From TrEMBL:
<dbReference type="InterPro" id="IPR001343">
    <property type="entry name" value="Hemolysn_Ca-bd"/>
</dbReference>
<dbReference type="Pfam" id="PF00353">
    <property type="entry name" value="HemolysinCabind"/>
</dbReference>
<dbReference type="GO" id="GO:0005509">
    <property type="term" value="F:calcium ion binding"/>
</dbReference>
<dbReference type="GO" id="GO:0005615">
    <property type="term" value="C:extracellular space"/>
</dbReference>
<dbReference type="InterPro" id="IPR018511">
    <property type="entry name" value="Hemolysin-typ_Ca-bd_CS"/>
</dbReference>
<dbReference type="InterPro" id="IPR011049">
    <property type="entry name" value="Serralysin-like_metalloprot_C"/>
</dbReference>
<protein>
    <submittedName>
        <fullName>Calcium-binding protein</fullName>
    </submittedName>
</protein>
Length: 209
């Protein structure tokens, strides 16, 4: 999908379904220097300079729009060579960080059927998993600007929690990643993701935000 800006237009909107979303930053006449970026919380921001005239006088405005990008679709998100932060949002999404030190963020309501993401290329000691404390309520507190390191006793490997302290369970044989709010208590664990390359995972890969 390609979208361009022409004289007299002040905002561009786009929608992609099933294909990669590509933004053409071309602008014409009174729109200058458009920029496109992804914010830390997963929203998009578009900025540009707008020049206009009244008689012989020229005026300049700086325009910006912040756009909500999350939805319940089954998305495919791919990073490249940089240090990317990927938000799958709702849906069964496929996430690929590419090269660099990438962060995979889980911050939407859990559902073992409709909200289980796949992480295709997790790399131990390079990549990280961020867990939002408003969703994962038994992990303690942290923020996006100051992520809290995961306690080693809250992480275990295998198919289920081994003691009352375990909160994240990683089954390396299948790649399944689970959240268990009460460890060996009565509440069932919930699958949150599949690490499809079955990478090594340690407690040090996890942070609470």
């Amino acid at each position: 999908m390609v979208t361009r800006a022409f004289i007299g237009s002040y905002e561009r909107r786009w929608h992609a379904e099933g294909d990669a979303l590509r933004i053409d930053g071309t602008s014409e006449l009174n729109q200058i220097d458009p920029k496109f970026a992804v914010l830390e919380d997963g929203r998009f921001v578009v900025t540009w300079v707008h020049k206009w005239f009244v008689g012989r006088e020229q005026f300049t405005d700086i325009k910006a729009r912040v756009l909500e990008a999350r939805n319940g679709a089954n998305d495919t998100l791919a990073g490249e060579a940089g240090h990317d932060r990927l938000y799958g949002g709702l849906g069964n999404d496929l996430l690929s960080g590419g090269a660099g030190k990438d962060v995979f963020v889980f911050d939407t309501k859990l559902n073992k059927r409709t909200n289980v993401d796949q992480i295709a290329d997790f790399r131990y000691q390079d990549d990280s998993v961020y867990l939002e404390n408003r969703i994962f309520t038994k992990l303690g507190a942290g923020t996006a600007s100051k992520p809290k390191k995961f306690n080693s006793d809250m992480f275990t490997t295998g198919t289920k929690a081994q003691d009352a302290e375990d909160r994240i369970v990683y089954d390396k044989k299948s790649g399944a990643l689970y959240y268990d709010q009460d460890g060996t208590g009565s509440k069932a664990q919930v699958k949150i993701a599949t690490i499809t390359n079955k990478a090594v995972l340690k407690h040090s890969d996890f942070f609470v935000i």
